Amino acid sequence: MLKTGISNSEYHSGPELSSSIARKIISSSPAHVKYGLDNPQPKTPALAMGGCFHSLVLEPSKVESEFGEKPDQIDGNGPRTNAYKEAFAEMEAQYPEKQWLSASDYDVCCEMAESCLDHPVVSAYLAEVDAIIEGSGYFTMEGADCRIRPDYFLPDADVVIDLKSTQDGSKKGFASSVRTYGYAQQACFYMEGLRMLGYSPKQFIFVAVEKKPPYVVSVYTLRGSDIDRHREDMRRACQLWTQCKSSGIWPGYSDSVETLDLSNKFNSSSVTRTASMFGVSRPYVYKIIEAFQLETRKIGNEVRVDMHEFANAMRWFNEGKKDEQ
Q: Does domain 262-324 have CATH number 2.30.30?
């Protein structure tokens, strides 16, 4: 069963396999996963905003204790002064459980949350009394201890709801995000985990809220077939995780020389169609191609690029942009 009362920090510090790690161990390598586990990245403003937005929508009573606004000045000193930095460090030490946001970032979170709560579908679901909010679930698959934490689960309706902040909440734009960030794999991991815990989830719903005014909200679901096709990936990730944990060996890529099969693996699409599928412009596609030196082929008057390579490059490009924010 899902357990409530487990803090976000306690959950994320657990040793179990999560959906994000499962995706990475398949898409990258166990070596990449091990490095990430041994070298945790500091929390970014984007992560703090995401957490604050979630709490404002789902658990507003916790916002004051979990988040705080960074003051513009402390005793007349600005953020660039040593006096401010020392005083703010004392504030962080006094409230170690808090994540700190700038006043402007906090205002954006509040605007996003208000827009989200005004959406008729969202407000109807949030009115349900049987909801399990931020419940943590632990289960074992293929020998791997796993964990899930659905944002919002309605066990009577068998519906899982996941909040997402996004740059583009249109159908094309969010479909691109689903491909780029592996949201279908996440849905599969959560749905399978809930079944292992004795539930019968039937629908996974994304509530996408744009991060810029007017903070438009859209609500999407995925076809069951688009979720279920990732079951094998999930099992393979669990098997890899179990092998690495038991052996202490976290391999990278192959240790031998392998032949690249360019003819069969080049799942090409024209630049125009690629732009349409990912919800971006043609100049943006060319920008990604140039930035990552992706292989292209010209067939007739069409320039074609491999869809899988473009999706990975776009993900890396967007992650790099987030790190810069």
A: no
Whether 257 and 160 have beta carbons less than 8 Å apart is answered as no
On whether the CB atoms of residues 128 and 111 are closer than 8 A, the answer is: no
Strands (E), 240-301: 268-270, 296-299
How far does CA 21 lie from the centroid of its chain? 11
pLDDT for residue 192: 97
Which residues face 182 on adjacent strands?
Answer: none
CB–CB of 146/17 below 8 Å? yes
Whether 42 shows a pLDDT value over 80: the answer reads yes
The distance from CA 113 to its chain's CA centroid, rounded to whole angstroms, is: 18
Residue 323 has pLDDT above 80, yes or no: no
Asked if residues 206 and 192 have their Cβ atoms less than 8 Å apart, the reply is: no
Domain residue spans of the chain? 8-28+103-240, 262-324
Mean per-residue pLDDT for 112-132? 97
Helices 271-278 + 307-324 axis angle, to 10 = 50
Nearest to 97 by CA among 50, 49, 64: 64
Predicted confidence band of residue 291 (pLDDT cuts 50, 70, 90): confident
Question: Which residues does 29 contact at the CB level (< 8 Å), separation at least 6?
Answer: 251, 252, 253
Asked whether the predicted pLDDT for residue 244 surpasses 90, the reply is yes
> Which H/E stretch holds residue 123?
helix 120-126
Q: Mean pLDDT for the chain?
A: 92
71 vs 165: CA distance, rounded Å: 25
Which of the four CATH numbers 3.40.50.20, 3.20.20.70, 3.40.1620.10, 3.90.320.10 does domain 8-28+103-240 have? 3.90.320.10
pLDDT digits (tens, 9 = 90+) for 10-37: 999 999 999 999 999 999 999 999 999 9
Phi-psi region of 105 (alpha: psi -120 to 50; beta: other; left: phi over 0): alpha
